Every structure is written in structure tokens, then in C-alpha cells.
UniProtKB/TrEMBL annotation:
Organism: Planococcus antarcticus DSM 14505
Superkingdom in the source lineage: Bacteria
Gene3D superfamilies for this protein: Aldolase class I
InterPro entries per UniProt: Aldolase_TIM, Thiazole_synthase_ThiG, ThiG
Record's keyword annotation contains Cell inner membrane: no
One of the Pfam families matching this protein, by short name: ThiG
The protein's name: thiazole synthase
PANTHER family associated with the record: THIAZOLE SYNTHASE
Positions of the Thiazole synthase ThiG domain: 1-134
MF terms (GO), sorted A to Z: thiazole synthase activity
């Protein structure tokens, strides 16, 4: 978590695996330190490399529908779009895009980041999300 580039994310995942941890990795490449929003280009690159290395990849991403579909096409095992920026507690600020991601992908969609209340988590589940990360 918290890598700034694809290379950092890949290196961290490989170190974790070499130290005996499992090969399931949440890919989190942060593009903006102020907002903690993910970098879509670096996330895509890191996910592709880690999938080639045999990792189970769960990328943290924005609510960009096309990016979610590309990540699924690469072979990611789940998609983890943020409801709103990390730590903001703003809840689901773009329910339409999250609904599109849930409807248009066949892998689990785990809502990640920005959940502020239990009702936000309930809304995400009612929308059809497979899970919510708190």
C-alpha cells in the first residue's frame, strides 16, 4: 500500500512474497499525496506485471468504469474502487459509476476508501458490491 510508482508496488509485492507472505496483493499506487487518489496508469502497469508473476491481484482504483474493465481484462481477481478519497468519510460520492462497475464486471467488486458510516457500507452492499473494505 502507498506505492508511488508501479515499480515500487511490484518490488513491495515481491519482497512480501519472498518473506513468506501469500501471493494475494492489494495494488495501491497513489498518484496524489494530498488526496490519496490512485494513479490509474501506474495501477494498470503494476497489475499487469504482478499478474504475469503469478500474483492474485486486487487493485485499488478510482470509480472509472473503463479502467475497471481493463483491469478485469488483464486478469485481476477483484476490483477495488474507492467510494471517495481515502480517509475522507464522504461516503459514496458517485453511485452511478460504482453501479456501472458492479454491473459491467464479472469479478468481485470491493468498495474501498471513503466509507464514513455503517449506512454507506449498507448502500454499497445494496448496490451489489461483493464487499466493503473498512
Amino acid at each position: 500500500a502507498g506505492a508511488k510508482t508501479a515499480e515500487e508496488a511490484v518490488r513491495t509485492a515481491k519482497l512480501a512474497k519472498a518473506s513468506g507472505l501469500c501471493d494475494m496483493i492489494k495494488v495501491e499506487v497513489i498518484g496524489c499525496q494530498k488526496t490519496l487518489l490512485p494513479d490509474p496508469i501506474e495501477t494498470l502497469k503494476a497489475s499487469e506485471e504482478l499478474l504475469k508473476e503469478g500474483f492474485t491481484v486486487l487493485p485499488y482504483t478510482s470509480d472509472d468504469v473503463l479502467l475497471a474493465r481493463r483491469l478485469e481484462e488483464l486478469g485481476c481477481h477483484a476490483i477495488m474502487p474507492g467510494a471517495s478519497p481515502i480517509g475522507s468519510g464522504q461516503g459514496i460520492i458517485n453511485p452511478l459509476n460504482l453501479s456501472f462497475i458492479i454491473e459491467q464486471t464479472s469479478v468481485p467488486v470491493i468498495i474501498d476508501a471513503g466509507i464514513g458510516t455503517p449506512s454507506d457500507a449498507a448502500i454499497a452492499m445494496e448496490m451489489g458490491a461483493s464487499g466493503v473494505l473498512l
